[in-house]
Amino acid sequence: MPSFRLLAAGVAGAAAVLVAPAAALAAPVLGPVVVPVGGTATITDPAANYPSTVAVQLNTVACPAKIALATNTGPWIPAVTARTSTSVSFTVPTGPVTGTNGAVKAYNACVYDTAAGNSALQGSTTLYVGAPLAVSQASGPAGGGNQLTVTARPETPVFTTPASVTATFTTGSCGATFGTANPANLVATNVTKQSATAVGLTVPPGVVATGGGAPTAYTICLYDGSAATAALLSAAPYGANVATVNPPAGSYLANNAVSVSSSMPFLTGVPAPGVLLVTGAACPPAYSTTATGPAPVALTGTAVRRITSGRLLLNVPPLTLTGNQPTPYQVCVYANNAGGALVASATYTAALTATPTAVTPSAGPMSGGNTVTVLGTDFPTEPGRITATLGGVALTNIQLINDRAFTALAPAHPAEDDVTLIVTTPMGTRTLVGAYSYLNMIKAAPNTAPSSAGNVDVVLQGSKFLSIPFGAAGTAARIFLVDGVYNGADAGDGSRANGPVAECGDVLPITDEELVCTLQLGRRFNAAGTGYFDPATYANNVDDANVIAGSRLVTSGAGRFNRNDTGLPVTSPNQQLSPGLTISAVLSPTRALLSKPATVGGYLPLAIGGPLRGFGNALITTAGSATVSLMPGWTFTKADVGRVFGNTTGIANGTSILSIGPGGTTATLSAPATAGTTFTLTGVTATDGSTVITSAALTGNEAPAMIGTNSLGIPVGSSIMSVNPAGGGAVGSATISMPAVGGGTGSLTLSRQSNAMLFGATPVPNGSYHLTVVSNGAPDAALTDPDYFQTDVTSSSTFTVAPF
């Protein structure tokens, strides 16, 4: 009878029950690590000598000395499907069950020399019945550090219940609980439960190869938590290679240079190694180009180059894929190509190389941080297997969508058009030229307002605002409102090729990424883009105008219309057109629109420009104040909003009316008055019932002037009609429009009214524009300033001027 041997499985979690002293002599292997019901398990023991009548029994208790009677509830006697003197294979029968969701459950596999009642126990091991797991890499480099994903089939979601999962590596048996002694350098790190069917982990540094050509066998043990009592969920096989292949994968379509290296001198005494690439099986123990499965690929000649005793360079040819999926090949290194022994092995994966085809959106801010989607083909879907750069800077937060797309955060990068995307996976590197443009972008809020709003505070978001020298003139940086892309080049007539229509001034940077500025929409820039248009100094004579009665359209055969005509009054010296008629739009140099249909028609010379209305000795101003008022009998109207003052004492030409006060007696201006109409007359004496006042301070220029609040009994709002100035030591006198009541002596506050002229409104026309920051607002700055830049035109820089 054969000698008694007790088998010790690679995952013998119930070792305390099963192991006898004789087990120390055993070195058997049971595979696979986890077997499903109906699956085949094989017990291999090189030191055994199994008879032809060998039998196997599965039991939930320790193996009895003789085979027990089989029942439906155990023990069970599975059918032996194959045997040799050192191995026995059998099918797991119906009866043994798995744990929850395919988790493993331990059974004792007892080997007897016969199925008869007088049988003798040959040995035993632990069999784990459960749902087998797949590992993203069957083997990896000695010393760990590589990422693995352990996955279960959808129908057996092993990882459903536990909130967290832990993992250890072992060359022996998995402990029944996580609390079993585990060396620190064999506990996996970065273990993440990704789903009910997937767990990611990092191989710990203690997973090393012990020498020899074949990978050193390890078992990955997965537990349902980190407590000492956490139960074993499942297990999976893994190997540590003596040598490392770099890169570990490549395109199956191309020749790829591969380095096989090791810290061990595995090529010592091997001057001419032989190399085979084997798929679907482990490396043969000796060099052979014959195989029961797919034929090995032999590398010969210059495709194999021995560099040192620890490094080999290979030229891997195009390879065949299995099922059009990534296909692992064993790189088998032999002492020679004439039956030499295996000296090292490692895994190389042939696959479709990930190929990027587009980035969307195709442009973004140079500050980065925005999400982009990379489109393409054959992207790996396991976490951590894609890296990429954009313009030479790494993408971050890469999130896989599927094998055709992933998202990421674009990095910061200086403004540049058409930068290159480089995507790297274990299968290789691919480049997409001109994939993305970094724009000097700004974002405006609000991004719309009516021209009647006057001054609008706008917040801009962008970059590097604190280092930009903003100002109001010369070479200072400016923020322009532009119809399209700003072009400050001199067009040859003093105007810019595409200059601003307005400016966002009074710039106040808040942070390097945010500023506030004030956009004045009630006034537009002149055609040259050098400043605000002043209608008080502008006139245009269109001497060939063709006016159509009942139509707003007017034409000029010689093209005499100018964009500055917009908003200005239009008259005909020969025949008066409709009262209050203005040019509402200039469509082209030959065509313009009137504000309302013409009452007459024909070829009429048109005069464009001039005042729309005047206020004779009626305007009252205060120096430094943006509020003005009118003498009684005069009022502002709603139509005056946006109109511009010209030739008016105390108000700068081009100052516009922003709003009208209640009753039309006051108005708010776009800029404060430069001089006031209010002054004080001292030493005044008024007599009750008299319309004559006296004062030695009268000079003769006080009339006409309106009298304000006083203590002399003179009615507020009355005015000085005429003056006899003081002279030769005599006291002067003045006639007032209403008699004093009570009289007295003191000072009078007087308001001397100004003549005022209002010209047509010149707001920014309705339309869509772009706010553009230019580092130098001078004409031709792009040609003369080597550090010049301007922000790009994007959807976020749009500012719309609309009726409401």
Automatic annotation (TrEMBL):
The keyword Signal applies. Residues 356-426 form the IPT/TIG domain. SUPFAM superfamilies: E set domains (SSF81296). One of its GO terms (biological process) is carbohydrate metabolic process. The keyword Iron does not apply. Residues 1-26 form the signal peptide. Keywords: Signal. This is IPT/TIG domain-containing protein. It comes from Paractinoplanes ferrugineus.
